[in-house]
Specification:
The chain is of the alpha+beta class and 556 residues long. It has three domains: 111 residues, Nuclear Transport Factor 2, Chain: A (Roll); 100 residues, Penicillin-binding protein 2a (Domain 2); 297 residues, Beta-lactamase. It has 20 helices and 24 strands. The strands form eight sheets. Strands 1, 2, 3, 4 and 5 form a five-stranded antiparallel beta sheet that branches. A five-stranded antiparallel beta sheet has the order 15-14-24-23-22, with helices on both faces. Helix 10 runs antiparallel to helix 20 and helix 11 crosses helix 15. The radius of gyration is 32 Å and the shape is elongated.
Length: 556
């Protein structure tokens, strides 16, 4: 009988509902843990809700959390309501985890009256008492250096006085430190970087700012609203940043910047065997543009795999061709054709535009995607790429009608890419048909997680190499030749429309982007490269190929 009574009492106790005060405190703190400020505000009593709007309430909590550099908080279960100074409060132990000051654990006494929580600003952070607010004194850690592949410094020194021992050539890849954009200030404050703190604003300095900057330290203070007296709630020492070692070859980096010569555009150089980035100059991956005829490497790959093209095919000598009801002319209106290797070497639009409809939408897009289109560049680990959010090289998933397919097949229309992406296309051919990730960092935990992708057979890669050699030995890319080795390349000239300000000329001067992508030596590839010059006023063979030759010659 006694056992039954005890069981009944325990069961009744376990099933009994909590007090209204305790239940409200639990809902309030659980909503706080998940950052649901609207739900927290609903737990306030009528007087508090009238005194502070939901927006003001949220701002008060966010401001305290920025000052605390809060990462998260965990409330314990509320205790039973107690009477304090004639009022009712519910004690709750809360652990706050901060970036700069470590852990803060304190009892928060949540006042309850008139059917809800009687909120005041001191409840915005555990450890504060009435008429106190939160402030911090941040101490920054020493900023770590960015290193080239050989261990030499690309950037070093304090955040406010960063230096570049290799000169301005290193800035294109290392990036710069400076004042953050207003849109980033709140997130940076939560990481321990108050407004005005120099942070990475471009390049590796921005992508890996948290690693380079280390962990700030200092003191978290409860400051009296009336007199400025302060209590220390928590404090910690700053933790220095960790160096970032890159895959950059300092000599190649200097050569790429020199070859770009201040022109608007970009140059990317990759290791032809493993895809690692050896140099990035200018807008190497930040400003996608139509690739022009360098995309014909992609089109040729798709056509050969689809079986709509043979290397033995011959074409009539034409100055253009009708595709989808529109005449697509060869560059400059020249006559070209003949064997397919000759058509490839001369970059003959009349032969390539009809391949688009023959290949078909799905096969052309699938080939481009295997080569890296419609994916972010694999410069870092995925979490870092997501944070930086670099632009993707793109091709529409649904390109359109036969005309759109024809235009896309020659690298115009809505196809957009970057020097980094087109260097990756060249690297794929150079590497026997296997595309490697294009990592710019050597630190294992920072490198991309992407696996190599076999895009084409080794035999097809060999055939494409022969085609690309023909471009340099007797086609549009002869200015890309170097004495040190045989270059395999492909030129491109993308027309973006007429130059502004022309008075309706019969043949308007076109804005032209000049491209050249290549690898060398052709028989034992070491380097892959792509050059893009925006609004170059000349063809890829005339201006982009010589720039690539300058870099390849220096590298080999």
């Amino acid at each position: 009988m006694l056992v039954a009574v005890v069981a009944f009492v325990l069961g009744a106790t376990a099933g009994a509902p909590g007090s209204p005060e305790k239940d409200a405190a639990e809902r309030f703190t659980e909503a706080w843990a998940r950052q649901d400020f609207a739900a927290m505000h609903r737990e306030l009593n009528l007087a508090s809700r009238r005194a502070v709007s939901e927006a003001e309430f949220s701002a008060a909590h966010r401001g305290a959390e920025e000052a605390a550099t809060l990462r998260g908080l965990t409330p314990a279960s509320p205790q039973d309501a107690i009477s304090v100074d004639g009022g009712t409060v519910v004690p709750v132990t809360i652990e706050a985890r901060t970036v700069a000051f470590g852990r803060v654990e304190a009892d928060l006494e949540i006042p309850f009256s008139d059917g809800g929580i009687a909120w005041d600003p001191s409840l915005a952070f555990p450890g504060l008492v009435k008429d106190e607010h939160l402030e911090n004194r941040i101490e920054l850690a020493p900023r770590a250096p960015i290193l080239a592949a050989d261990g030499s410094a690309l950037a070093e020194g304090a955040a406010g006085a960063r230096s570049h021992p290799l000169g301005s050539a290193a800035i294109d890849v290392a990036g710069e430190v400076g004042a953050a954009d207003d849109a980033d200030l709140a997130a940076l404050a939560r990481q321990g970087f108050p407004p005005g703190t120099p942070v990475g604003i471009s390049g590796i300095e921005q992508a890996l700012n948290a690693r380079l900057a280390g962990r700030p330290g200092g003191s978290l203070l409860a400051v009296s609203d009336s007199g400025g007296s302060a209590r220390i709630l928590a404090q910690s020492e700053p933790r220095p940043g960790a160096p970032v070692k890159t895959t950059i070859d300092p000599d190649l980096q200097a050569s790429a910047v020199s070859a770009l010569a201040g022109r608007f555009g970009g140059i990317a150089v990759l290791d032809a065997r493993n895809g690692d980035v050896r140099a990035l100059a200018g807008q190497a991956f930040s400003a996608p543009q139509p690739p022009g005829s360098t995309f014909k490497i992609v089109t040729t790959t798709a056509a050969l795999q689809r079986g709509v093209l043979s290397l033995d095919d011959e074409f009539p000598i034409l100055d253009g061709v009708n595709v989808g009801g529109r005449f697509i002319s060869n560059a400059g209106g020249e006559l070209c054709g003949g064997t397919f290797p000759e058509a490839f070497a001369e970059s003959c639009n009349a032969d390539f535009a009809p391949l688009g409809p023959m290949i078909g939408n799905d096969a052309l897009v699938a080939t481009a995607e295997r080569l890296g289109f419609n994916s972010p560049p694999s410069l870092y680990a995925p979490r870092i790429v997501r944070a930086v959010d670099p632009p993707q090289p793109t091709i529409p998933v649904e390109i359109g009608d036969d005309l759109d397919l024809g235009v896309s097949a020659i690298g115009q229309g809505e196809v957009l890419t970057t020097p980094l992406q087109m260097a990756s296309v060249a690297q794929t051919v150079a590497n026997g048909g296997v595309r490697e990730p294009t990592s710019v960092v050597a630190n294992r935990k920072l490198r991309p997680e992407a696996e190599p992708v076999r895009v084409m057979s080794r035999r097809m890669a060999h055939d494409l190499t022969d085609l690309m050699v023909g471009v340099v030995t007797g086609g549009t890319g002869i200015a890309g030749a170097i004495v040190e080795a045989q270059v395999a390349g492909k030129t491109g000239t993308a027309e973006l429309g007429p130059e502004p300000g022309q008075e309706d000329p019969a043949e308007p001067i076109q804005i032209k982007d000049a491209w050249f992508t290549a690898f060398a030596p052709a028989d034992s590839p070491r380097l892959a490269i792509a050059v893009m010059l925006v609004d170059a006023g000349a063809s890829g063979g005339e201006v982009a190929a010589p720039a690539a030759a300058q870099v390849l010659s220096a590298g080999l």
